[in-house]
Write a sequence for this structure.
């Protein structure tokens, strides 16, 4: 359009110059410019006049990093060939726009597949693909979009993690300490199929030999297997830029924990205070995972409520009845530790997934807080940038073992 306006202004200038000077060359140049503009208008009009477009997007929900596919059929219903028609799609998806140029003979149909990448989690309303026509001289660009909209949910990526709750509680039972860690006990209630990340020490060899499938022990909790995943979305403690930020790391952690324990038939809930108040009450089954992932797709680390205040407001909610509380935070403010004690007094088992903000470019160090949590015998895992989640849950030692050791990206 800018070129068209430039040529239009130029044509007017040439016409005025010709009228004022009477020089014939100006009139010839004016006629040439008018022909170019007219040809551009005619091309852009007729190139899309007889083109019909239909499309289909099979996926309604994808994970971050997945590709989004659109199947497009372009049909030329006119009597003349259409050359150089561009087809664009996924322009409403961050980093996802893709396009192709098609040439259509008269009465021909061409099917193409456009693929884009889902780089940011969120819930997006996608419009239909766009047809774009540009005349051979690039003077005029005309576009038309297919009608209709569709919702696409981009959920956080889920990574495989071990059953760290069972691991730490079983180890506690062996030490005979930390009586409030009631989530699992020594009694075996059932066996189930082995899942990636399970500790081989829990393999039930008799059942494995009988069935031919690797089976692991399922411990009797003595209470309902109920978990709350609490997400710290306070803006003041976040560091880094998406996709490499503490916010994205925390959301990926939460999604992975929910996926793991819903798969183990726990009732799992999620809560956090960010740009809004988020809460999904504990539930089990595939629908629980779907609801949690959809909620986590839209949370943002823009909250104004510090973690200590948010935990104080959540005590009653997560303690009726008590269960396991998994806290995910990059905050190194020691004031929220007192709220953990309040949660514990209500009978909850507490685990902390402490994100090392310094590894994401932040200024705060997790060392002192991690040491204090270990000294208080609060199971704590430090999560650092650049290490897969599965590798950061190291089994075989208690999460507070060796309090004099340097804080690492492994299980503490």
């Amino acid at each position: 359009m800018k070129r068209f306006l430039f040529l239009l202004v130029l044509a007017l200038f040439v016409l005025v110059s010709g009228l004022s000077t009477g020089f014939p060359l100006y009139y010839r140049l004016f006629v040439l410019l008018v022909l170019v503009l007219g040809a551009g208008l005619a091309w852009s009009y007729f190139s899309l006049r007889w083109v019909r477009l239909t499309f289909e997007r099979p996926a309604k929900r994808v994970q971050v990093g997945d590709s989004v596919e659109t199947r497009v059929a372009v049909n030329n219903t006119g009597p003349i060939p259409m050359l150089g028609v561009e087809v664009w799609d996924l322009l409403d998806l961050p980093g996802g726009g893709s396009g192709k140029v098609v040439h259509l003979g008269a009465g021909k149909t061409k099917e193409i597949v456009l693929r884009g990448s889902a780089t940011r989690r969120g819930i997006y309303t996608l419009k239909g693909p766009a047809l774009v026509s540009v005349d051979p001289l690039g003077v005029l660009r005309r576009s038309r979009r297919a009608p209709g909209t569709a919702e696409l949910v981009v959920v956080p990526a889920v990574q495989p993690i071990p059953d760290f709750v069972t691991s730490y509680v079983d180890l506690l039972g062996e030490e005979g300490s930390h009586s409030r860690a009631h989530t699992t006990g020594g009694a075996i209630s059932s066996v189930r199929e082995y899942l990636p990340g399970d500790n081989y020490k829990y393999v039930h060899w008799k059942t494995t030999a009988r069935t031919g499938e690797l089976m692991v022990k399922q411990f009797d909790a003595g209470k309902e297997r109920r978990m709350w995943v609490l997400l710290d979305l306070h803006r003041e403690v976040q560091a880094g830029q998406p996709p490499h930020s503490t916010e994205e790391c925390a959301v990926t952690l939460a999604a992975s924990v929910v996926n793991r324990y819903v798969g183990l038939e726990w009732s799992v809930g999620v809560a956090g205070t960010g740009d809004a108040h988020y809460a999904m009450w504990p539930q089990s089954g595939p629908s629980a995972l779907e609801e949690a992932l959809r909620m986590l797709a839209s949370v943002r680390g823009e909250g104004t409520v510090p973690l200590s205040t948010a935990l104080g407001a959540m005590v009653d909610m997560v303690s009726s009845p008590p269960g396991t509380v998994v806290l995910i935070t990059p905050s190194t403010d020691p004031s929220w530790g007192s709220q953990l004690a309040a949660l514990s007094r209500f009978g909850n088992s507490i685990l902390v997934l402490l994100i090392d903000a310094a590894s994401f470019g932040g200024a705060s160090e997790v060392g002192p807080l991690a040491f204090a949590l270990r000294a208080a015998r609060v199971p704590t895992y430090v999560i650092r940038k650049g290490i897969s989640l599965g590798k950061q849950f190291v089994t075989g030692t208690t999460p507070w073992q060796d309090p004099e050791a340097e804080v690492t990206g492994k299980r503490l």
In short: The chain has ten helices and 20 strands. The chain has three domains: 49-155, 164-178+225-392, 186-220.
